[in-house]
Every structure is written in C-alpha cells, then in structure tokens.
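Run folding on both entries below.
>entry_1
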Amino acid sequence: MKVIYLSKYSSIGPSSRYRIYQYIPYLADYGIDVDIRPLLKEGYFNIIETENFIIKNLLKIFYAIYRCIIRFFDILQAGKYDLVVIEHQVFPYLSFFFEYILRALNKNIILEFDDAIYLTHPKKMPCLIKMSKMVIVGNNFLKEYAVKYNQNVVVVPTVIDMRRYVEEGQGSRVKGEGGKIIICWIGLAYNIDYLKQLSDVFRKLSDKIALKIISNKSIEIEGVNIIFKKWSIETEVEEIQSSHIGIMPLRDDEWSRGKCGLKLLQYMAAGIPAVASPVGVNKEIITDGVNGFLASTEDEWYERLSALCKDPELRKMAGVEGRKTVEDKYSIDVWTPKLAGIYKKTVT
C-alpha cells in the first residue's frame, strides 16, 4: 500500500515528527510505504528566527511562493498513490484551490489535525473535513468539532516511541544545579508565554529550584535561575531525563483544549513526575496524585511543586506510574497497528 503524506513540516517540526515521521519504519512492517512531502522545511525555521522584521517577512513571502510551487507538483502526483493524508491543510494561504485539484485526482483522502486550527481557518476547515473520506484527530475535544461535518472521525493521540527512552527517568536521583531541583519545560518559542504565568510561583521556589527551558529561545524571570538548553532532537531526551520535574502550564481556552499533551507525555516517558494544568487532554492523561499532578491556581502550582521538591520518593512514585501510563496507552507500539488499520480501511 502506497501513501503520500502531505505534512505540515519536515521532521524538525514536532507535530509532523510525532504524527507521521516516527511511524515510518513501523508502518513498513504492515506493508505500508509512506512518501512524506513536507510543506515547510528547515529553511522556514531559520527564517522565523531572523531578528530584522522587514527582512524576515520578505523572506517568508518568497519562501511561501517557492513552497507553494513545490506543493502544487506534489499534488499532481496524488493519483499514483492508494491514499492521500493531509496534515492540517494542503496550503494555509490559499482558500480551497489545491484541495479541489487533489480531490479530483484521488478520492481516498484522510485529513489529520492535532490542534484547534478551525479557530484560525473557520471557513476552510469545515470544507476540508467534509471532502475527506476519513478524519484523524488528536483528542476527543477535536473530535467533537469534526463530527459536525463528517461522521468518519477517529482519535489517534500523540504517542511516544519508548525506544528513545531506554532508561527510566532520574527524577529522584539527579543532583541538580547547585543542589537545586531542576524543573523542566520543553516547547516551541511561541508557547513560552505559558511559562510566564507561573513567574511568581518560580520566584517563591527560587531558593529550591532551577528552571530548565528546552526551546529555540529563552526568557528571563527576575530572581529565578534559568538554565537554557537549545532544543535538538539528539539531546532532548537526555535533557528531560536529567531533570527532576516536568511542567505543562496552559490557559483554559479553546486553543489550549485542542492541544494533545506532547510535552506531558515526554516527561512521563522519561520517568520524571509531571505537573500540568487540568485543561483538555491533560485531564485524560493524568490521574491527579497517581501518575502526575494537576494544578489550576497559583497556590495549587506552588503546593504541587513544593511537595515534589521536598520528597524524592513522591517524585519516584509519580515518575514510575507516568512511564507505565505511556507504555500502556500512549506508545507507538500500541498505536502503530491501529493507525495501519485506519489507513487500510480508508482505501477499501
């Protein structure tokens, strides 16, 4: 079975990396050959880090035109494949032109999305969902939206390849930065504002903790020791496992409820205890006090983090249970046969 996957990013983009790239060798075991055609490649990430506003936007325009041409030729190949999978949309800057061409060439289309992108494309997404033979979403909140326009909707959560996390987390054993507990946050730069809402909590704990930020940029919080580690796929697991606690603060809004809990699952896979806002899928992943901790208010965040800082056995217990949750429910070994079945069912 041959699949052309029109991904949003190359493997450097976390959504594409976890939704399809990591599956490639395992889907091959089920006779599924996936040809990934990314829209945005490494050059895009270099452009958005350009500091000069005018130069950055000029580069983005030219890059978008260039990638639009490439994507058009990718679409013309669609008829040669048994199945077409679209991650998010074919091209975000055009209304529905490419999708009409694609539909004419191949009717076996799966739309996949793991964010509430209908908030930014409210007119286009219903059309995309209706034209698809099957829709894959990352959580039940997104499914509630998608089933309004298509009854063939399935949930495939973001999952972890546990082969990358071969050692159990060191959350109870790491000595820390100057004897301090290392609290870890990993994510893209445009999500870093979620951290700022906990600034006062970090300041209250500043004599006990260091805050590790794994991203492509950092922030400063007055009075808090920040350890910045530039993200790379080669070092992300090591950086998480050399921390004591992982955090995922969110605002309780519709965009956040559409998120799929990737960083939360990474912490848990690494065997370190996770503390998260009880928003969206986080409430499904974490059983509070068992495999992690949920915190809504500043007081709750302070209480959860303070307790974990003081008690290495509590960190160990939550880390072990969190890892077990990922192994049982959110591992690539559990979900590869299910995804393979969805692909095959769509072309029958």
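>entry_2
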Amino acid sequence: MYYKRQLEDVVKKAAKEYAAITLYGARQTGKSTMVRNIFPQMEYVTLDNAKEMDLAKRDPELFLDAHVCPLIIDEIQKVPELFETIKIRIDNAKLHNLRANKKGEVMYILTGSNQHQIKEKATESLAGRTAIIEVNSLSFCEKMKKKGSAFIPDVDTLSKKKGYIPKNRYEIFEEIFRGGMPEYYINKMDRTMFFESYISTYLEKDVSKLINVDKITDFRRFLTITALRTGQQIDYTDIGRNVGIDSRTAKSWMAILESSGIITILQPYASNLAKRIVKTPKLYYMDTGLCAYLCGWSDSKILEASSMSGEFFETYVVSEMIKSLKNAGMRVEYTLYYYRDRDQKEVDILYIKDQTICPIEVKKGIGNEKADKNFSILQQYKMPIGKGLVIDTSERLMPLNKDVYFCPVGLIGL
C-alpha cells in the first residue's frame, strides 16, 4: 500500500523547472518509494547493488550509458564521482535543447540518506541544475490520508481547517509511540525487529564511514543518550560524560545525527536587545517512534505516564511543524526558534513570520489559564507580536484570552 506524500506536488513542480532533483533524508523515510510512484516510467537503479556501485566508481560515463535517461539513482552519496559526470550531461543537454528551441525535461532524480554529503556535492557540482528537497517520515496528516498544508499560527486560518477529528491524549501518545517510518507504519511490522534492523543499517552504512569502527558501540550508546534528551537543551559535556567521550566528540557526533536527518536542532531566538537569553540550542528527534524505541519504552501508555511524556509531546509538535513546513517547500531555519533566559523563563516555540513573533506554548494535557505567562517577555524585542497559541489536546480552537488561543495538536499541518 502506498500513502500519498505531501511533498509530491513540490517534486512535480521541481521536475518542470530543473534538470535534476536531489532528495535527501533519514533512512526509511520513503524517498525512493515516493519518486518511483511519481515517475513510474523512469528507470531505477540503486547503488546498494555492489555491481552497479563498482561500475559507477570505475567508469561514471559507462554507468550512465548503461541506463536509460531520465534515470532515478538511489543512494547517490555512495558514488560522489557521479555528480560531475551528471553535471556535464545536463549542460550538454541544455545546450542541445537551446539550439533546437526545445524545453528541457528532468533528466536525473538522485536520492540518498546523508544530508551533508549530498547537499555539499549537489551544491558544488549541480548548482542551478538541481532542486534540493528533504524527505521526512510520515506526518500525521499523511497517516490520515489528508492533503495537509504548511502550519501557520494564524487563528483565522486555523479556524477554517476542515476534517479535524479530535484525539485524546492517549490516542496522541499512540501516534507518538508508533512514529512515522512508512514501511513500519503501513505494514505494521514487528517493532523490535524493524528498529534494530534500522539502527544496525544506519550504524553500518552511514556512521561507520564517519567515525572509527572501534567507536561504533559508543555511538550506539550515544543514540540512546540523545534520545533520552529529546526536547531538552543540548549539554555536550553531560552527554559526553554519559557516553564516555569528550564534549568535542559529542558535538561532532551530534552533527552526524543532524546531517543524517535523525534529529533537528532548534536555535534560541536572539537579538542585540536580548542580553540575558540562553544561547544553547535544543535537540528533537524527527521520528518519535525511533526515539521511543531508543529510550526503551515498550508501550504507549507507559510512555504517556512517564517523566518524559512532556518532552515527547513537545518533540511530536515540533517535528510535525517542521514536516508541514518542509512538505510545502518552505524553509524552517529562519522560522522556528525557542526562547529561554537566565531567569529560566521559557517560551517553547517562536514562529517568526514577516518580522512578527507568534509565541507558542506546548502542553501535553489541556492548557490552563497560566499557559501564556511568559509571552509578555517577548515585548523586549520591539517587534509586532501576533496572537499566541497553546498547543494541547483540547477538542477545538478556543480563546484563552483576546491574545492567545488553545489549539488542538491535530490542527498542525492539516
């Protein structure tokens, strides 16, 4: 069974404008499945195939000649030499089309799981020739088979959303516990077998190329330690001490998780006027199912009752916001932040749009009348402040006061 992805429209639009499309994201997020479903007429080749990879490394020209263009190449990061050859072929095709007064078509769709490698090579070799698109695990709307849209914290927009079915806290935590890896979610695979295989493949195929082999066991422990800190500020010294590595190594390994699409890092919002702001970023796992498995939770009810339930709910909210924005082709790094100062006053999420700050608080249950208690701190920025939201498990959008609304978590991305 195939679940329609919200990114499909973005990919189809890119195919009309670029000679190549480069898709990256964590393993098992459905990159190759999506493009093969969108472009069933294209030939598909994966560099997981040892013979194909060997040929591509030895003779990139012969490898491309051996396949029909347009071509989908999976695991492109395994043979970075292909990028330069693909660039030359795209440039030759563009020149031919120009002389023939013919509109060009997409020639290559490249997919892979290492964000840093792929983006670096695509930017270097295919600048102006390829669209670069990130693919994440299934969003809540995709699971519900709804079209979905980018999350915008605008009360008028949210009030017009159709098709919202309220879910209570226990149902939401079941969603959090399962996560959104397409193959696991759709085929209802054995949880332990799937995630153990996922972690082993990730360590063997991605991590082992970036760190010493004798450190793989430490990195496996590092995965667990970071999962236990999802939704929290990053303390490299504390993480390193618990893993048995120094803080510099912890920071380097955190970058590997981020470039692999396993985690996202939310930066604190700062300006010259905010002298007392804490400059430490927060980490969030992008798939809550993987995070829950790494933490050792065996049941959604146990997770919901645990001391980490608040962090997991916040992780779910942040990851759903990010998925909704990226699925609409929008940038996240200049949109989502958080606020915390040295007096421990915090606002969970700041959504910045058109120089307006929209404060958002996240509550795993039903928010109370004090949920917006820190929103007034943001006046120090001397910027317009939009209506705030308290995202919780309430049944409908309703006002806390004239400036703040309670917002059901299910409205994110709807």
